[in-house]
Amino acid sequence: MADHQEASVTLPSDPASVPAARKYVMRVLDDWGLPADAEVADTIRLIVSELATNAVQHTLGQSPTFTVGLELDRDEHLRIGVTDSHPRYPKRLPAAVQQDNGRGMVIIRWLTAECGGRLSVSPTDEGGKTVWITLPWRAPVRRRPRDAAH
Fold this sequence. Notes:
This protein is of the alpha+beta class. The chain has 3 helices and 5 strands. α1 (17-31) runs antiparallel to α2 and α2 packs antiparallel against α3 (104-114). It is globular and about 40 Å long. It starts with a strand and ends in a 14-residue tail after the last strand. Mean pLDDT is 86; it is low at 146-150.
């Protein structure tokens, strides 16, 4: 059995890519053994939606695409990262009552912590950044059989 599984997709920085990112992540996680109706699945959907929305809205046109990456390490930890090419790290904005946005990172941080996970941000070699969430993996892992040609 592999100790590490990975998957990723690169999408245009367009609002229509947010549901595409969410569907991609849920399809991969289902392939890896996390049922769509698992308690944590809704939380992951919301986190991915918020991360993808941030990559689209807050890169100010400087990131034509964003990448959603997933890593499952030793059947213990799931990492989901959203990478864009904008150098500015996300900021925690004050959650003023009259403010219509700016709460995404607060929501992501809270949801991640509620699941026993953590959030981090790392720079890319190209000058952008990846916002990572790491969550404990509690589902039995399914592995696809390898192709005979590999």
